[in-house]
Specification:
By secondary structure, this protein is mainly β. The protein is 6% helix and 54% strand.
Amino acid sequence: MKNSIKNILTILSILTFSISFAQNIEGLITTNQNIPLGAANVVIKGTTSNTTSDSDGKFIIDTKGKLPLTLLVQYVGYKTAEIEITSLPIPSLQITLNEENTLLEVVVSSRRRIEKVQDVPIAISVITGKQAEQSGAFNVNRIKELVPSVQLYSSNPRNTGINIRSLGSPFGLTNDGIDPGVGFYVDGVYYARPAATTLDFIDIEQIEVLRGPQGSLFGKNTTSGAFNITTRKPSFTSGANFEVSYGNYGYLQAKASVTGALSKKIAGRISFSGTQRDGLIDNVATGRATNTLNNQGIRGQLLYKPTENTNIILAADITTQRPDGYAQVIAGIAPTKRAAYRQFDAIIKDLNYQLPSLNAFDRKIDHDTPWRSGQDLGGVSLNIDTKIGNGTLTATTAWRFWNWDPSNDRDFTGLQVLAKSQNPTRQTQITQEVRYAGQLTSKVSGVVGVFFIDQTSKTDGTEESGNAQWRFAQSTTSALWKTPGLFEGYGIKTNASIRSSSAAVFGQLDWAITDRLHVLPGIRSNFDKKDADYSRKTYGGLQTTDPALLALKKLVYSDQAFTSNTDNTDFSGNLTVSFKASDKINAYATYAKSYKPIGVNVAGLPTPAAGQTLADLAVVKPEKINHYEVGVKTSPFKNSIFNLTFFNTDIKDFQTNVQAAELGVNRGYLANADKVRVRGAELDASFVVNSHLTLNGAATYTDGKYIKFTNAPLPLEETGASVAFKDVSGTDLPGASKWAGSLGGELSDNAKFFGNSGKIFLAVDSYARSEFSSSPSASKYLVVPGYAIFNARLGFRASEGFSVTFWGRNLLNKDYYEQLLPAGGNAGQYAGVIGDQRTYGITLKYSL
């Protein structure tokens, strides 16, 4: 294996080439100890032109005949250098990078140009790929511990919601009929389904988390923010990274990446990631631990440079996930307003059943329906960047798919209440984005683009009753409920499909009134169309013609079908004023009018109220958003940042996911809350105390409330009350903690290990959040208590050669919930998504 890798690298090295023109800049990048820095990033400021240094620290970059210009030279762990070039010929440059924290100088591309994050008038957090790897953040669920404004809730990959500032996705079970409010982009490609956020990152260069509405810079309109993720690109300089991690509970993770030239104008990169772990919850019924990890992913890229002004990247990726389920554990039992014989304890007593434990953190279940959470996600994209005039034209074409193959135990017990609960789904999407970004005049720059997406989602589901269904569904004292075999094998077959198309024209200008005062207007025109077909048919159970028995069966499941064809046109926009008071203070204020497109229910509906039809309930009105934000980005002293943001978001017709008491609507359905308001403040800070110690922290305060929601569903404990709805105006939004924050630091020193120069380090970080409601209608039983977790790392890292890290997560072994959710039918039992207990291990990495 070792010889094979060496042979591959030798071939890639032979094929690697570079050519210098009269207008090229050549240079050498070293540390202040005169050690060459390979893979350092060299960027022409204000453009997308960039290159990396080779293993000897040397680089070549084309000026494209534009002078004067400024070079930005970056390397993680070192302060970014700025070199101004004003005339030709250009002598060979000797660039020395000093070891300092790079957060102050990190650059982003969210505004479709390369610029310092401190200069961008947007609330944005940046996590470099190396930072994510070093902290063990291999998916979005780990990123939320570094960016406390982010929330991710997942009872399984399909039922995943990602929020920023407590807004984005309806809290609870996912419905394919609505769009997420948080955009998720990888290399400019929009991922439509939130399930993508549960998969492992593959060879990530940088993660930019933008907070607030983003409609004039990105293809897909998003109402609460966006993840802008870039992967490491192919390089004409050969390189390779290999990494393996071992940990308790059989944890094993392997990563590898190889890049290099394939010809004079073509370079390639192939990257792999795989993660496995044993289960963390014991199923006493099967004698086997469940909730394992089993993820594999591969990404391949080809870079073609027909000219110095054009980059063409063809990329393909596929990721598979085959865990042994996402089982939830009974967290408690709530008394309801139903009759005594319909309380959970009375039901299981009649069935001679006992829960395996009354303490969720014993991590024991006895589920009799297998948990399966198989998913495949992949696609192909073609991205073309070409320099035209003073800007860059970008065209991104992509096709993607998502296959979901689940099995769930939605009653959370060892009883055969729901013998089957599975809704396999296949989603495909085609996206096309074309945009131009650049300097339009000496005072005006901007971006303008068009975007189109067409996606189809098809579900072929099954939900089937078992031999205990009669007792949970029993709603009268009639002896007919005990009829043998009445409900056993009785269920519904569901066929649901939705086709969603969206087209948009968007743009944003940056008008420099003075060097310090900028005005940034943005506009967007959007057309959305959604066509849905839903049909479910009952089957099985006792075959009878007795009207009384048939009536009982219909109380559990009934046939249902509807068709919906809706479209919507919307015009939105934003206005930002940015003022750079000094080199250390940059303030901005933003107003944004945004919206979330019309929604369609495709997961079953409750029985319509008098005067309503299924078609009335099927369509969910679009959200209308008015957003206000002010922020200041500062550098109070050398090597520090201190950023503060205040925001207020008002939403009319808020799209929320509610849980029905009817078994036939076990997956929940969508409805509109009249008005919602979220306001709060965010703090981001980073300090370099000295050459050995760095500190960083982030905090957010969020006040999210239903301002008006008069027809909300009843909370769990009020199920069975004489009314069907409740006025929850003034109560907290689900998933919204008042406080959340992260705090960390690293102590390091220069060292050598196995002959490699690098750093020995000790890093500690923590994440905490206060309590939050875990129910669309606030329930005192479905409140997740606040918690804090602590992680640490100790090791040696080098830019080349061998690195080793010992790590531990949740070191204090804190028991905590990530989510609480009621069982189907609201019988009183509710389950918890449990956070991982203490884990620890070692990571070995070798870079060439």
